[in-house]
């Protein structure tokens, strides 16, 4: 286990190093002065320009520049945004909780729906229920998340008027930014009409969460069904029936436990897909997360924001992948090293 952790730690460090190299390289690939792309500051005064050039060691070799770039990243000095003039470190970590919140609610809802339906389909293998659920999962998995989000806006917002069109909460409510999670911030605040603000935030959240949940539920259902189908013919399940246990007892004592053991790591590996879908949905619903922020930076040609945003998102995805793989090995030490999710 120690060698496994050490190998993953080395992989994590090397991957982050490659991401930092690419981020540093982007400052030279983007149009304009590399120093301006690194800092996000338009330095018209020659003295200010020279001081900033010394800070980034622009008169030194490329390796020295990259080393000091890493030091500044570690210190939280990621430069400033062209469009807003705010520190990029602050903007990114103000936007990131909204993305994490959207992804978390969608994942929890997908697990609550997909796992029971997956067990139902697996236990009724090759029957009408299984075929119907499998067909529904194929449709859900094949549906592009952006098209689904637009369809929900057209139906539930423009036609029926049930939910707000976009945004995270109505402008009538002034919610303090404490944790970045809108429901938690409303709960912790002392604002008047807290209940109305909570309802309004949930209404804004329904369509974005459902847009991600439908696609993710299809994945969860198929993974769970596959695990149950593989467990049912096992010898220990047949031996449990031979001992006189009822079907209910066999399912609870043997099928559920052994089916969930390999499926939990596979479900967790879908977190990167979930995060990607959340970033796409943010743009459509004007959800103030990291995905919407990064797209706006691309539209405005905010090169420092693009560079820092890509580094932050890539680091988050790599960190989740490495952590989940370690957690999967702890949960199931017998899991094959080359195991991958199959749908």
UniProtKB/TrEMBL annotation:
<dbReference type="InterPro" id="IPR000515">
    <property type="entry name" value="MetI-like"/>
</dbReference>
<dbReference type="InterPro" id="IPR035906">
    <property type="entry name" value="MetI-like_sf"/>
</dbReference>
<keyword id="KW-0472">Membrane</keyword>
<feature type="transmembrane region" description="Helical">
    <location>
        <begin position="12"/>
        <end position="30"/>
    </location>
</feature>
<keyword id="KW-0812">Transmembrane</keyword>
<feature type="transmembrane region" description="Helical">
    <location>
        <begin position="102"/>
        <end position="121"/>
    </location>
</feature>
<keyword id="KW-0813">Transport</keyword>
<feature type="transmembrane region" description="Helical">
    <location>
        <begin position="133"/>
        <end position="158"/>
    </location>
</feature>
<dbReference type="Pfam" id="PF19300">
    <property type="entry name" value="BPD_transp_1_N"/>
</dbReference>
<feature type="domain" description="ABC transmembrane type-1">
    <location>
        <begin position="96"/>
        <end position="328"/>
    </location>
</feature>
<feature type="transmembrane region" description="Helical">
    <location>
        <begin position="305"/>
        <end position="328"/>
    </location>
</feature>
<keyword id="KW-1003">Cell membrane</keyword>
<dbReference type="InterPro" id="IPR045621">
    <property type="entry name" value="BPD_transp_1_N"/>
</dbReference>
<feature type="transmembrane region" description="Helical">
    <location>
        <begin position="201"/>
        <end position="224"/>
    </location>
</feature>
<keyword id="KW-1133">Transmembrane helix</keyword>
<protein>
    <submittedName>
        <fullName>ABC transporter permease</fullName>
    </submittedName>
</protein>
<comment type="similarity">
    <text>Belongs to the binding-protein-dependent transport system permease family. OppBC subfamily.</text>
</comment>
<feature type="transmembrane region" description="Helical">
    <location>
        <begin position="263"/>
        <end position="285"/>
    </location>
</feature>
<dbReference type="Pfam" id="PF00528">
    <property type="entry name" value="BPD_transp_1"/>
</dbReference>
<keyword id="KW-0997">Cell inner membrane</keyword>
